[in-house]
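ingest -> validate -> predict -> emit
validate: passed (alphabet ok, no gaps, 115 aa)
predict: started
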Amino acid sequence: EVLSVDDDPVNQMVVENLLKPMGFEVTCCMDGMEALAELQQRSYLPDLVLLDVMMPIMSGYEVCEQLRHLFPRTLLPVILVSAKNDEASICKGFDSGGTDYVTKPFNRQELMARI
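emit:
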């Protein structure tokens, strides 16, 4: 299962349309607070979190930092997804606890390889 966190419904639909035909279950959350609540109330974790960086209320970096307080990298991989493709943003993604970082618009084959 993949937990997709993105405040843009179109981006959510793109992720679902890409992953569901490949056999993945996809759960969508519209913001970081919703994603944190979803993960804390479950009795199991998803296999992966796809996490948008630029969101209102909490950035993806902030959400990732919170996730790392709850779950180690080995237990919950997080791929940050962002239009920010500069070195500082990518490094900040890894510093916040991201397992990987993919830039938007993402290449379908690259995203699948990273997943």
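The mean pLDDT is 94.
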